Amino acid sequence: MRDDFTLSEEERQVRDLARGIAREQIAPRAAVVDEAELYPAESLAHVAQAGLMGLYVPEAYGGAGLGALAFCLAVEEIAWACASTAVIYLVQYAAGYPIVSHGTEAQKRRYLPRLAAGEITAALSISEPGAGSDAAGMTTTAVRKGDRYLLNGTKMWVTNGSQAGVLTLFATVDRARGHKGVTAFLVEPTFPGFALGKLERKMGVRGSPTVAIHLSDCEVPVDNRLGDEGQGFRVALGTLDRSRPAVGAQAVGIAQAALDAAVAYAKERRQFDRPIADFQGIQFMLADMAMHVHGARLMVRHAAGLVDHGATGTALEASMAKCFAGDAAMKVTTDAVQVFGGYGYTREYPVERFMRDAKITQIYEGTNQIQRVVIARDLLGAR
Predict the structure, then answer these.
(1) DSSP per-residue letters across 73-122
(2) Confidence of residue 1 (pLDDT cuts 50, 70, 90)
(3) How much is the pTM?
(4) 11 is catalytic
């Protein structure tokens, strides 16, 4: 893709660095990670050693201090190689950025240098059994008792929850206040009353652990509250405006991998004494796939660029980028399987994995139906 002129020299360097690591170190392990549902510790170690874990972390805390676009470039390259590694990587950002934006100085110094170095990973915990898209309806409670809060409830779908050294977790201090009661906390798995629950067996991104978290009078120091009481919903929304373009970047990376595989296979596979790439039906499929990938990439970069330029009210562009890219990835990967024919339906080739991995990008960080609600409300002026 001839787009270097739209990137700064620093952003190009990040992309090229991530691409080299992704293709040389991460891609060769991706099939085993998926097949064995194996946590990609080695792949993440390579990402950390290159300094990519701390792209969003300010330099004062050991990071690179770069923006959302640089991070999305890295996510796309890692996702091209292994979607499981990419989702762990982007959740590190989604859970760590609230510390950058709302953390106290003590919180920043406690967590950010270790996150930037890859010594620990982070997890984001918003969803519950009865509160997915309706995040304001969460029932996990936080009651202050002296110098600590006691948290009680169950959280669901916590990506990387079983591996994280810190979880940015949301609970309510007053259910009657709705979203105005939601409060953010930095929870460590060693806190009394914290317990891991069910490990989900998933269709795709199978190397990224997704778990339930059970909190039973979980003791969280007041110093680990992130922001003020009742500020959590705003923290969450601000985080999603940044993390949704990153999910879009993951979708773009998966889709690009599927397109690359389909193009290569169409050149090699012969039917009727010629490559199937000679047939217009295949050519049109590949052309449509390429347009979807290109359009999704541009939308992701546009949304990330707005964030980097300090634009206000980026929810519309973030939702559009995430939604379009997720839908594009699902279409492109499904078409890639079709190009491969019967072989595409087997595990001999990676396109069936791409299709399974792509599906989640239409679901997490807000389903694509919720993204359409956000987009429509913005268009209609309903806040």
Answers:
(1) HHHHHHHHH-HHHHHHHHHHHHHHHHHHHH--HHHHHHHHHHHHHTSS-E
(2) low
(3) 0.95
(4) no
